[in-house]
Design brief:
The longest helix is centred in the first third of the chain and has 28 residues. Helix 10 packs across helix 11 and helix 14 runs parallel beside helix 15. This protein folds into two domains: about 120 residues, DNAb Helicase, Chain A (Orthogonal Bundle), CATH 1.10.860.10; about 260 residues, Rossmann fold (3-Layer(aba) Sandwich), CATH 3.40.50.300. It is elongated, with a radius of gyration of 28 Å. A nine-stranded mixed sheet has the order 3-2-4-5-1-6-7-8-9. About 50% of the residues lie in helices and about 10% in strands. By secondary structure, the protein is an alpha/beta fold.
Length: about 450
């Protein structure tokens, strides 16, 4: 027997709603004040989508909207039997403008259901390519399906909120009187000052540097400071270190014990006592450590969403590092791929109100730069994509001159410069921190911020 295709219940339920909305707008074009932002063309099906697109086009151009102007606008498309049938239907469809908003909300709901069903169908179709022996693949697929479902829910319920200037100013004045600090203090005083109060929600900070500068160590020290002070919950995603390695680094930094001695298990009594004390304290900390090599932007988004559902909202998310993120779809070039990563991370920060710190590698060209401070990085050194600079709210470079001039007696090994190369919330500049490499530990240098010429 030939296989029969079941009718799509979401589509059949949506069609009368679409017809009623289109007919109502032709009678009452002023309804578009509310419907324009409530209904996206993708929520309509078939030829009715083309009709809605033309109605929005007429509205945007300030032209009259009636059956005559709409027919004229669609003249080039009336060769499509579906468009001609849709126009014919509008001539006889009873208009009920009083119910248009109700119908629009129902159509959004049906659209959400349809997108969710499609996401599940696509996920099930792609699951045939996932090996049951590869739990990372299964987990990544589940994250992608969950992301598709969440995006469909957001599309169905999120209506853009528009503020008048007066309303915006009123809200800004309320924030000025708020006793709350504008950001989450990182524990590094000069960094907090440079970022106008610390890590602010909805922002993307890029922390970049060449290998050996201490990017991961600096990020872990900030994460440890946040967890100890309970100023904010954070998650640390690592694609190059296992969880055991991360924990050893945290213990070394907190206990002020050389990492090499921890790895080799060559500890004296004092060092063992320090590590025991550090471990006792760290057991009380609330921090998520994720060490999956195939971490994707979708899996980061899913983790943030799950934390909210558990009532444990994250405030700061560290990604170590940007270029190692797993791509779930092919791109034409590596630049486009990394650029998409940075844009999606910025979108996640804004959507969930978290601060994302994305670590980033610099290109090798920085190594050949000469001058009084050799290999000093700049924004054009950001590796693989110019979009990183555009998407980031702040770009920080770690620079250790001693790394390049170890024979110079005037350069100290512990000195590390943090260059604020881009800052939407304040000035660019430079400040110092101390880096104790053997213990993978950063400390405040308590030095004044010095402006970059």
């Amino acid at each position: 027997m030939p296989k029969t295709t079941k009718p799509d219940p979401t589509r059949s339920a949506a069609e009368p709603l679409e017809r009623s909305i289109l007919a109502a707008v032709l009678v009452r074009p002023d309804l578009l004040v509310d419907l324009e932002h409530l209904l996206d063309p993708a929520m309509f099906t078939g030829s009715r989508r083309l009709v809605w697109e033309e109605i929005l086009g007429l509205y945007a151009r300030g032209e009259d909207i009636d059956l005559i102007t709409l027919s004229s606008a669609l003249r080039g498309k009336t060769g499509n039997p579906g468009v001609a049938a849709a126009l014919s239907m509008l001539m006889t469809e009873p208009a009920q403008p009083g119910h248009a908003l109700t119908y629009a909300r129902r159509l959004r709901s049906h659209s959400q259901l349809g997108r969710s069903v499609e996401a599940l169908r696509r996920g099930l179709a792609e699951s045939s390519n996932v090996s049951p022996e590869a739990p990372e693949q299964v987990s990544a697929w589940l994250d992608e399906v969950a992301t598709d479902l969440d995006e469909s829910r957001q599309a169905a319920h999120a209506v853009q909120r528009e503020l008048t200037l007066a309303e915006g100013i009123a809200e800004a004045l309320v924030r000025l009187d708020s006793p709350e600090e504008p950001g989450i203090r990182t524990g590094f005083y000069d960094l907090d000052d440079a970022l106008s109060g610390g890590f602010r929600p909805g922002k993307l900070t890029v922390l970049a540097g060449r290998p050996g500068m201490g990017k991961s160590a600096f990020a872990l020290c900030i994460a440890l400071s946040l967890a100890k002070s309970k100023r904010g919950r954070c998650a640390f995603f690592s694609m190059e270190m296992q969880q055991a390695e991360i924990l050893e680094r945290l213990l070394a930094a907190e206990g002020a014990v050389d990492l090499d001695r921890i790895i080799r298990r060559r500890l004296d009594g004092i060092e063992r006592s320090r590590l025991t004390e550090a471990a006792t304290m760290m057991r009380q900390l609330d921090m998520d450590l994720i060490d999956r090599a195939t971490t994707s932007v979708a899996s980061i988004r899913a983790h943030i969403r799950r934390s909210i559902l558990r009532g444990e909202k994250l405030d700061v998310v560290f990604v170590d590092y940007l270029q190692l993120l797993h791509a779930t779809e092919k791109s034409e070039s590596r630049n486009l791929e990394v650029g998409r990563f940075s844009r999606e991370l910025k979108a996640i920060a804004m959507e969930f109100g978290v601060h994302i710190v994305a670590l980033c590698q610099l290109s090798r060209s920085v190594e050949s730069r000469q001058g009084t401070r050799p290999s000093l990085p700049k924004l054009s050194d950001l590796r693989d994509s110019g979009s990183i600079e555009q998407d980031a709210d702040a770009v920080l470079f770690l620079y250790r001159q001693w790394y390049y001039e170890q024979d110079n007696p005037q350069v100290r090994e512990q000195d590390c410069s943090v260059l604020v190369a881009k800052n939407r919330s304040g000035a660019t500049g430079e400040f110092n921190v101390f880096f104790f490499g053997a213990q993978v530990r950063f400390e405040n240098a308590c030095m004044e911020v010095e402006t970059i010429a």
